[in-house]
Structure formats: structure tokens, C-alpha cells
Amino acid sequence: DVSPVVAGLIGATVLVVSVSVTVFVWTCCHQQAEKKHKTPPYKFIHMLKGISIYPETLSNKKKINRIRRDKSGTAKEGGSRGNLLVDAAEAGLVGPNKAPDGPPQIEQLPIKVDYGDELSPDQSLTPGGSKTSSPSSPGDDVMLGDLTFSVDYNFPKKALVVTIQEAHGLPVMDEHTQSSDPYIKMTILPDKRHRVKTRVLRKTLEPVFDETFTFYGIPYSQLQDLVLHFLVLSFDRFSRDDVIGEVMVPLAGVDPSTGKVQLTREILKRNIQKCISRGELQVSLSYQPVAQRMTVVVLKARHLPKMDITGLSDPYVKVNVYYGRKRIAKKKTHVKKCTLNPVFNESFSYDIPADLLPDISIEFLVIDFERTTKNEVVGRLILGAHSASAAGSEHWHQVCDSPGKAVAKWHSLSEY
Questions:
Q1: How high is the pLDDT of residue 294?
Q2: Do 220 and 190 belong to one domain?
């Protein structure tokens, strides 16, 4: 026989222990779930950016695709799910860029002697950006093929309709497979508000895209002032995509008012000089020889190009430090929302021995942050051993020749 008091104490003890164990187990499960959510797999759906698209042409596109496949006899990888493009290979390579939470102030650089064959910043400035030599690099007389597309205008919806149909005679960009993995990026100039791209077609020099893009809110009276810019690229899983060429089509000579106009244009070698200004970036550098520490301050940017449909951007700056041919450190600033003239004022410090300074390069990438699509690089600046401009080399020499003094300068951003 147990007294009621003792029985009550035993029951209360059992209850407290049970609740404590339950809370402990729940806390551990919750922490595990949070860890999984913090490091998601690099998979995302690439959605078309800056445009509104109706699904009225999807059934027609599927019929055309079946007819094209029967004629050409070549299978295409991946389907066009409406106007959503799933680029898993690119997603696995790059991964989604997210808004940084703020960088720590000091980072130790893991300096090594042997760095293998990783590309240096100056090598990636080439138009192709690949490790293999591009067939279009030796001269301008190389045939880059033709691009066929059509232009139409929908008066009731005030929409410009562009169909990228196919390309012929593309050059070989992958020496191992003797083929290419082509896709096309399209932009409407001069505002560059509308940016779209087709899916990647694997191992073909005669790609058939048959993808229709509808751009709404474009008055017919403004068509004569617009230029269609097609950039033909070949996807590369292990480095930057190769640029095959470009096609520029002024709509001043095209009249789609009477119906669809089909055009075929020769793909020309890309002319980087045609590109508009990418804006300017102000940075400050100082080197402390006693502490052997380089301090980099990203101050502000100005006159950045419009990247969003709202006419603004959400820029942030990614800072990469290279020693010779190897990237040894990377940091990011915070994202500045809805501005073309952001002010960052963020500082980063790196421990760098003085005898390694001649081989150090610092790369600044101004990037437009996007929630639903892949982040896009607005412009690029390199200071140090691989600086491509006279102003960048002069700035670096002033920093090295003036120990302990912070040197701040504005630099024009180049295209990435």
C-alpha cells in the first residue's frame, strides 16, 4: 500500500521526466531540420526574367517541335515547359546566389605553391572564356553560321512576338565531342529591360529551338527605335560558356504590321566595343607591411545599367582574391535594394605576405541579385597583377608604393 502523497510525487516525477525527454527529442529534431534547410541542394528553376508571357502558343510549339524532330532526326534534350526553362546543368555548376548576411572582417589566405590549371582572371576576359581555343579567335573570316527567327506584333495586346527558330552551320566549340551545346540569349536594346534565353541543345551544330517569346507593353510606334540583340553561346559545364557570336537586328527596317516577318541573319564575331557603359565602382586599398595585411574597402558605385523591369537594380559586390592562377579568397557585400547608385562602405582584410604582392590580383564583380532567376553580373574590375586597364595598374602600384596609406579611386567597370 502506497500513500496518496507518495503516489502523487511518483506520478509528478514520471510526468516531468516524460515532458523533459519529449522536449529534448523535439529540440534535436528541430535543429536537424534547420540545418537541412540552411544548406539546400543547388537546384532551382530558371524563370524568364522581365517579361510577361501567355501560354497561347504552347500547343503550336509542341506540334512544330514534333515536325522538326521528324525532319531532322536529331533528338533534343530537355523539353520546353511553357516558358519555364530548367537548366539543371547550369544550376549544378553555378548554384543560386543568395543575399549575403554580412562578411567577417579578417580572413587568412591559404597560400600554396602549386595551383594546377585553374583559370586566372585575365584568361577569363577572353570572349570565349574556355580552356580550349575558340575557332573564332584566329581571325574574322571564320564562318559562324546563320540564325533564323521571326518577328510579329500583336496589336490587341500591344505585344512584340519573337520566335527563335533555328541556327545552321555553327562552329565546333568542344574539341572532345567535335560539337557544341548551343543556346541563345536575347535582349531588346537600348534599354536592355527584356532579357530571355532559350534552353540548351546538346551536341549539335544545327540546333532547332522553336521558342516563342512575347514582350508586352511595347507600343507599335516605338518598334522603329528598338534593336534585337541575339547572343549565341555554347554551354560549358566546367568553365565559362563560350561565346560563338552575335546578331544585331534593328527593327527600323522590319514591318510586322501585315503579319509575321521571317528573317535569317549571319552570326558575326562579337564586338565588345558596342557594349554600353557598365557603370563605375569606387574602391579603397591599403597595405600594412608590419601586419602584412591588405585592407579592401568597397565604397560605392554609380551609373549602373538598368537590370530589372522596374528600371533599377539590386546590386552587391563579390570580391575575389587571386594568387597567380588560383582564387584563394572570396567575400560579398550586402545587397542594396532598388538603386543604380549604391553605397556599400564595407571593409575586408586579408593577410598577405609582402613578397607575394606582385602575384596578387583582386577581382570585383558587381552583381544584380535576383530571387527567382540566376544572378547576373553587371560589371567587373580587376586590380593587381592581372589588371587589364592602365588606371587599375596605377592604382595597385600606388597602394604598394605607399604602405599604410589608403588609396581610393573610381574605376570604370568592364563587361564580364
A1: 92
A2: yes
Is the model's pLDDT at 138 over the cut of 80? no
**CB 317 within 8 Å of CB 345:** no
**231: CB partners within 8 A, 6+ apart:** 184, 185, 186, 187, 243, 246, 270
Query: Where are any strands of DSSP class E within 155-288?
Result: 159-168, 182-189, 195-197, 208-216, 227-234, 242-250, 261-266, 280-288
Structural domain includes residue 374: yes
Q: Which of 119, 87, 237 is nearest to 174 (CA)?
A: 237
- Asked if 374 and 46 count as a contact pair (C-beta separation under 8 A), the reply is yes
Range of the domain at 365: 280-412
User: Please, are residues 278 and 305 in contact by the beta-carbon 8 Å criterion?
Assistant: yes
Q: In 3-state terms, the chain is what percent helix, strand and coil (to 5)?
A: 25, 35, 45
Residue 332 scores a pLDDT above 90? yes
Which pLDDT belongs to residue 309? Answer: 66
Question: Does residue 103 sit within a domain?
Answer: no
On whether both 233 and 152 belong to a single domain, the answer is: yes
Q: Are residues 257 and 365 in the same domain?
A: no
pLDDT for residue 193: 64
Q: Are residues 263 and 170 in the same domain?
A: yes
Enter the pTM of the model.
0.42
- Please say which residue of 215, 246, 267 terminates a domain: 267
Same-domain status, 226 and 333: no
Which of 234, 267, 300 is the endpoint of a domain?
Answer: 267
Q: Express each pLDDT in 345-392 by its tens digit.
A: 999 999 898 888 888 999 999 999 887 777 888 888 999 888 878 888
Strand partners, 330: 320
Could you tell me which of 270, 268, 272, 249 has the C-alpha nearest to residue 144?
Answer: 268
Please tell me whether residue 8 adopts helix, strand or coil conformation: helix
At 152-187, the pLDDT tens digits run: 998 888 888 999 999 998 998 887 888 889 999 988
